[in-house]
Amino acid sequence: MSDVIAHEMVVSFHYKLRNNEGKLLDSSPDGVPMPYLHGHRNIVPGLEKEMTDKKVGDKFDVKVSAAEGYGERVEGDAVVPRSNFPADVELVPGMSLVAENADGEAFPLWVTKISGDDVTVDPNHPLAGVELNFEVEIAAIRAATEEELAHGHPHGPGGAHDH
Ligand code: ZN
């Protein structure tokens, strides 16, 4: 296949992610490329942009600013009583939750601290404010199925979820 990465293709890629100090922050599991649906914000915008027009076998490095990555850090951590969370959800520092604002719009929050009945939540992704250095190798490119396009993410091995 001589396909290049374009809008609405499912792309699988191996990656390593480091901060500017060279510390490994994340990576695809050994030998198992991560799939995403191009053009649907499954991956950070700065990386997605650089993926366009690449082909299977391409290896490249991408430096992504915080703004094009997980965002700049913003103010807004808050302490919330434990009783505001569903009782059956086990809260642990580092986990993310989906909250709703007054207009009913969903937004992510991260639990940063739990102290007795006080739960501290933060609107910042743990990697907000961090410049991201990706090492990428494209493993596969294919057309998306209609179901994948409707869901906005890839299915199958390594996909977002099972149905
Ligand atoms: Zn789905």
Describe this structure in words.
This protein is mostly beta strands and 163 residues long. The protein folds into two domains: 89 residues, Chitinase A, domain 3, CATH 3.10.50.40; 45 residues, Thrombin, subunit H (Beta Barrel). Helix content is 8%, strand content 37%. It is built from two helices and nine strands; from the N terminus they run βββαββββββα. Strands 1, 2, 3, 4 and 9 form a five-stranded antiparallel sheet that branches. β6 and β7 form a beta hairpin. The longest helix is centred in the first third of the chain and has 7 residues. The chain is globular and about 55 Å long. The two termini are 29 Å apart. The model has no long low-confidence stretch (mean pLDDT 93). The structure holds zinc ion. The site of zinc ion has 6 residues, from loops.
Structural class, from helix and strand content?
mainly beta
Proportion in helices: under 10%
Label the CATH architecture of the largest domain: Roll
Termini separation (Å)? 29 Å
Uncertain spans, ≥5 residues at pLDDT below 50? none
The count of domains is: 2
Apparent shape: globular
Largest sheet: 5 strands, antiparallel
CATH topology of the largest domain: Chitinase A, domain 3
Radius of gyration: 18 Å
What is the CATH class of the largest domain? Alpha Beta
> Given the structure, what is the number of helices?
2
Q: What's the count of strands?
A: 9
Mean pLDDT: 93
Helix/strand order: EEEHEEEEEEH
Beta-strand fraction estimate? 35-45%
Q: Which molecules other than protein and nucleic acid are bound?
A: zinc ion
